[in-house]
């Protein structure tokens, strides 16, 4: 969807159709990603997140969820990188706290995905959402 034209502003014009399509898009996006959705979603760290933010995210998430899974000798220790460990515990936090979009914000360093990020023996938790 490009920038709307100023011509055709009247009823049924290009601009009006563009606005209606944006409202439909935003409404469906909000519906698809709400905690009551049947879609499977996970939370991971954005690839552009700096190391300090990743460390902060690990500390924040592990204050309320059990993070043993990223410790040495456990399934998600390897790869032993900040982004991998942060993604695992950010997802734990997101799943435990209701899978709401705000539970994956992490100061704008979290990203929700519809693709299961699990690898090898490291299984990313997925909690079914409940309807309210």
UniProtKB/TrEMBL annotation:
Please tell me one Gene Ontology term that the record gives under cellular component: plasmodesma
* The keyword Hydrolase appears for this protein: no
Alphabetized, the UniProt keywords read: Signal
Domain of life (superkingdom) = Eukaryota
Where is each X8 domain found? 41-124
Q: Which InterPro entries match?
A: X8 (IPR012946), X8_dom_prot (IPR044788)
**Matches recorded under PANTHER family:** BETA-1,3 GLUCANASE, CARBOHYDRATE-BINDING X8 DOMAIN SUPERFAMILY PROTEIN
Protein name, entry field = X8 domain-containing protein
Q: What is the lineage of its organism?
A: Eukaryota, Viridiplantae, Streptophyta, Embryophyta, Tracheophyta
């Amino acid at each position: 969807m490009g920038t709307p034209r100023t011509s055709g502003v009247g009823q049924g014009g290009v601009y009006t159709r563009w606005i209606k399509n944006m409202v439909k898009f935003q409404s469906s996006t909000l519906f698809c990603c709400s905690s009551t959705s049947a879609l499977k979603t996970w939370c991971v760290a954005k690839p552009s997140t700096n190391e300090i933010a990743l460390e902060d995210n690990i500390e924040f998430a592990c204050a309320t969820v059990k993070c043993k899974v990223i410790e040495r000798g456990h399934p998600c220790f390897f790869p032993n990188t900040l982004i991998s460990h942060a993604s695992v515990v950010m997802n734990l936090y997101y799943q435990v706290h209701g899978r709401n979009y705000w539970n994956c914000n992490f100061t704008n360093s979290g990203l929700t995905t519809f693709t299961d990020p699990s690898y090898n023996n490291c299984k990313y938790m997925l909690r079914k959402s409940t309807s309210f």
